[in-house]
């Protein structure tokens, strides 16, 4: 299982959550506490928003703990909304194009989970990606395919989406649920989606238990994580299975039934 964090709020340096805490994302890459595999060493990635509508990306196939550039980047990169992800591969190759997050226009996406029987179902899942978006398909992961299918379900790769991101994601989940049920396969989808202003996070599974997800709010900021970054459990709220978190700028955090 992968580990990830998503942040939206005041502009801060990425180091505050990626490298500095006692159980930071880098620490989790070496010793995750709530994953089936303690090591998440199959690459990592950062995605952040700054002065441009599309996000910046830095992805590397080495383990997060062994990249000497990561601490320097996280100390100096500052953003009001950013993603960070450490990968544990689930059957696809360890390449830069398979590292999260993934981007398409203004949209940023990362995933912890897997489509079971991926080799068997890959063709059917990729068929959910519209032809005009398939050129964005750079890697071989189920995660990237799901992302492009969600974008194709109503989000645009130009400024401003045409559909509620929760509704677009739910539409793809309905198709995936039908596919995996027909194949008798497990499916886990704990993921985050952002457009530079708002974050949408999901905890969902079919024929399996969903991967863990937590959040913490402070003022107008929200931090969403695969597992807590410290031992102060009272400050973290576990996200129920079958729900979506909607963290829109200037609005209270919403926890909604998902897919609905």
Can I get a quick summary?
The chain is of the alpha+beta class and 260 residues long. The chain is built from six helices and 13 strands.
Question: In the CATH scheme, what's the topology name?
Answer: Glutamine Phosphoribosylpyrophosphate, subunit 1, domain 1
The largest β sheet comes out as: 7 strands, antiparallel
Largest sheet, spatial ordering of strands: 3-2-4-1-10-9-11
Under the CATH scheme, which class? Alpha Beta
Strand content: 25-35%
State the low-pLDDT regions, or none: none
Total beta strands:
13
Inertia-based shape: globular
The number of helical elements comes to 6
How far apart the termini lie comes to 25 Å
Number of domains: 1
Rg over CA atoms, rounded to whole Å, is: 17 Å
Structural class: alpha+beta
Describe the structure.
The protein is an alpha+beta fold. The chain has a single domain (3-257), classed as Aminohydrolase, N-terminal nucleophile (Ntn) domain (Glutamine Phosphoribosylpyrophosphate, subunit 1, domain 1, 4-Layer Sandwich), CATH 3.60.20.10. The chain has six helices and 13 strands. The protein is globular, with a radius of gyration of 17 Å.
Task: Sum up the structure in keywords.
260 residues; alpha+beta; Glutamine Phosphoribosylpyrophosphate, subunit 1, domain 1; seven-stranded antiparallel beta sheet; 22% helix
List the helices and strands and how they pair.
Layout: E1 3-13, H1 15-18, H2 25-30, E2 44-48, E3 56-60, H3 68-76, E4 78-86, E5 102-104, E6 107-115, H4 118-126, H5 142-152, H6 165-183, E7 187-194, E8 199-206, E9 214-218, E10 221-225, E11 237-238, E12 243-247, E13 254-257
Antiparallel strand pairs: 1-4, 1-10, 2-3, 2-4, 5-6, 6-7, 7-8, 8-12, 9-10, 9-11, 12-13
Helix pairs in contact: 4-5, 5-6
């Amino acid at each position: 299982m992968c580990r990830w964090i998503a942040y939206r709020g005041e502009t801060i340096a990425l180091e505050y959550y990626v490298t500095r805490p006692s159980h930071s994302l880098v620490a989790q890459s070496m010793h995750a506490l709530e994953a089936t595999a303690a090591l998440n060493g199959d690459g990592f990635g950062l995605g952040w928003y700054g002065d441009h509508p599309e996000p910046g990306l830095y992805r590397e196939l080495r383990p997060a703990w062994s990249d000497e550039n990561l601490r320097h980047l996280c100390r100096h990169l500052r953003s009001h909304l950013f993603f960070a992800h450490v990968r544990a591969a689930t059957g696809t190759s360890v390449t830069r194009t398979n590292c999260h997050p993934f981007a398409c226009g203004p949209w940023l996406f990362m995933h912890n989970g897997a489509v079971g029987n991926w080799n068997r179902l890959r063709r059917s899942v990729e068929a959910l990606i519209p032809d005009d978006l398939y050129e964005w398909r750079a890697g071989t992961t189920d995660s990237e395919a799901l992302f492009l299918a969600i974008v194709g379900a109503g989000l645009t790769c130009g400024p401003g989406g045409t559909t509620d991101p929760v509704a677009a994601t739910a539409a793809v989940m309905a198709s995936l649920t039908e596919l995996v049920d027909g194949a008798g396969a497990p499916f886990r989808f704990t993921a985050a989606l952002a457009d530079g202003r708002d974050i949408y996070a999901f905890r969902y599974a079919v024929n399996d238990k969903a991967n863990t997800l937590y959040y913490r709010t402070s003022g107008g900021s929200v931090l969403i994580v695969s597992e807590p970054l410290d031992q102060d459990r009272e400050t973290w709220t576990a996200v129920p299975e079958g729900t979506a978190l909607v963290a829109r700028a200037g609005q209270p955090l919403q926890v909604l039934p998902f897919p609905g």
